[in-house]
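Q: Hi! First time doing this. I have a protein sequence and I read that you can turn it into a structure. Is that right? Here it is:
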Amino acid sequence: MTEAASPAINDSLSAQQLHDRILAWVLSVNDARDLSAQNIERQTGLSLKIDTEGTGSFRGVGALTGSWRYSLSSVKPAPGASPHSVLFSMGHSGDRYADMTPVCVGLERYQSTLAAAGFKASQRPPRLGTEYRFFRTEKVSVRIELRGRTKLYDPQLCIIRIFISAAPQG
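A: Yes, that's right. Below is the predicted 3D structure, encoded as structure tokens:
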């Protein structure tokens, strides 16, 4: 799969609308089959570029406000294996630590919604300005990475990355 072949997906969405779609999809995940590009497209309405070599890999990118962009891609545990994880991430063209105010979505909605759905929460100590929250069920794991809204170490935190993993079917 080539980077240039990756389509822009729903550039008209706000950061909140995008996160609402990602959260709704996460709640629908039961096992690794739900991490397929076709399922994600159906659940979120986002378009993904699927690897034509039959590996099951996929990637999509889109624009948000200003120079902010997002990506959604499959993650494989090893070469030749089927994807069992998906990474959603946000970034700023040109400045890794840009002010996130225009795209800031806090943890609260994810935390309350996932807890209500039976996910158990935990966290690990911050590392290099990134805070980590984990939400797990027996079959699904969600790692949310947060960083400061206006600077690296800021008490107001925004979601920068979400890593979703699921157990094989069965």
